[in-house]
Amino acid sequence: MSRRIGQPSPRIAVLAAAAWALLLTACGADTTDLKRWMEEQQAVRGPDAAASAPALPAYRAMAYRGDSAGDPFDSTRLEPAARDGVDRLGQDPRAALPLLERTPLEAMQMVGAVDRGGERLALLRLDGALQAVRIGQRLGVHGGTVQQISDRSLTVSEPVRDAFGRTTRRTSILILKEARP
Fold it and tell me: In Å, what is the CA distance from 76 to each residue of 73, 162, 172?
């Protein structure tokens, strides 16, 4: 007896039909336990539980107009636009920044602290030179402000944006680099 390749044998077709019949009979089983559970849930939550859910805003369909609308996957669309020459952190990027404000905090080393005229100053080394900073002075590329100076550390508070676009503060601490003997 010859059989074509790719066609099931009659025996397999009969077994498959019997399996489907068996599976479909399970769908006609007694559902009183399901009905009882549904009645319990309605008694606990009330019959209008779905009606008390908050309303979703209406869907507003937008037609894609090709190149005139720009690239929908452009990542700059996620950031707030700059306005009036001020960047997204509220700083003017065109202003000429002093060395302390255009150098990342990671590139600075605290090498000492001094008191001069009743004012505490921190001494920072960057680009091979020493710079004296005081409380309230701007420091770092993210527009940080010096908050506290102690004998062994300098505390800087920087504005940062969170995932929702809100401005929060991040605290960084520069620790005194010990001199090696």
Answer: 9, 16, 28
Using a 10 angstrom Cβ sphere, with 0-12 exposed, 13-18 middle and 19 or more buried, the burial of residue 88 is middle
Inside any domain, residue 157: yes
> Which CATH number is 118's domain given?
2.30.30.830
Tell me what pLDDT residue 1 has: 47
The total domain count for the chain is: 1
Q: How buried is 176 (Cβ within 10 angstroms: 0-12 exposed, 13-18 middle, 19+ buried)?
A: middle
Amino acid letter, 35? K
Q: What SS3 class is residue 17?
A: helix
Read off the pTM.
0.47
> Is 125 a member of any domain?
yes
